[in-house]
Amino acid sequence: MSYSEDGGVLKIWVNGRRFIGFGGNWGFSESMLRYRAREYDIAVRYHKEMNFTMIRNWVGQTADDEFYEACDRYGIMIWQDFWLANPGDGPNPDITQCLCRM
User: Fold this and answer.
1) DSSP H helical segments within the chain, as ranges?
2) Greatest CA span in the chain, whole angstroms?
3) DSSP summary character for residue 75
């Protein structure tokens, strides 16, 4: 995978071919987080059948190997979010603070 930000536009290439991400957010796998391999396979296959090419793993909520394996099987790229990575979600990452006691 490679990318450029020429002209303020993000462009992504995978294996030398231009990649355009179409998709949506993946939140909680279900209310009790009981998804397993079968459920991931079905849900990710639906994404593939809708011609999605990417799933945003919203704030990294899903970390099951079965989720990543299903995405790999169906050729779906994962945009991996990170918990509290935005100033609106928590502390400003541009401000360095030490919250430790001496």
Assistant:
1) 37-49, 65-73
2) 56
3) T
Task: List the structure tokens of 95.
Answer: 């401000």
Q: And the tokens for 92?
A: 């400003």
- Compute the CA torsion angle 26, 23, 88, 2 (nearest 10 deg): 110
The C-alpha atoms of residue 26 and residue 55 are separated, in whole angstroms, by 6
Distance CA 47, CA 76 (A): 8
Question: Between residues 15 and 95, which one has the greater pLDDT?
Answer: 15
d(CA 75, CA 11): 18
Per-residue pLDDT tens digits for 68-87: 999 999 999 998 887 665 55
Of residues 89, 14, 36, the one with CA closest to residue 58? 89
Which tokens is 21 given?
Answer: 């991400």
Q: Residue 81 is which amino acid?
A: D
pLDDT at 24: 83
Dihedral over alpha carbons 52, 33, 79, 90 (to 10 degrees): 140
